Amino acid sequence: MDLDIFVQYGPMLLRGFALTILCWLLGTILGMALGLVIALAQRYGPKALRWLIQAYIEVIRGTPFLVQLFVLYYGGPMIGLRLDALPAGILGLTIYGSPYFAEIFRSGFRAVPKGQIEAARAIGMAEHTIVRRILLPLGLVSALPALVNFSIILTKETVILSIITVPELMYQVQRLSTETFRYLEANLVLALFFWGLVEVISRLGLRIEAGITRHLIERP
Q1: Which H or E element spans position 73?
Q2: How far is it, in rounded angstroms, from Cα 215 to Cα 219?
């Protein structure tokens, strides 16, 4: 095993890793935000809108991310949507993740005791206040472990972005492998980078969960 190649290719790999984190972070945040909007629309929207949303969820969940990415990047120009590789990758992650996040939020909302919502309505609390003070905080506590788990899954989906030439970590690892023929070392560093990222996300998720739970207990 020749580790000297990492001295030469280290900066390139770090740039790729930084771009991987950027793609994952933006894709997760935007996907989670869109998923929350979808979940609320499913709960409070008219029936026609709920049907459309359900169709969207079934289509996105029923097709591979690679196919969605190809349609977005290569098929987009046919309808006037021309995106560079990086914006297309981030948008692809957002679209791919949003229905999964929506279903996670929906299950979290269903875990909120109905008695608390009915009591809030009984005292005249407005619906948007119920959502802000009861549904979202309690639903988030129930949904947080699943949100963290799917966020971890999205980190691994970022490797697919290399196929549309986003120069993230997988793209740089493939370049290293092609130029040096050191496939073992290249893929070992790929695995180590992702293992470290997953560990950070897992521990951060546990801290956030503990913080939210403590805040809810201490809240008057």
Answers
A1: helix 65-74
A2: 6
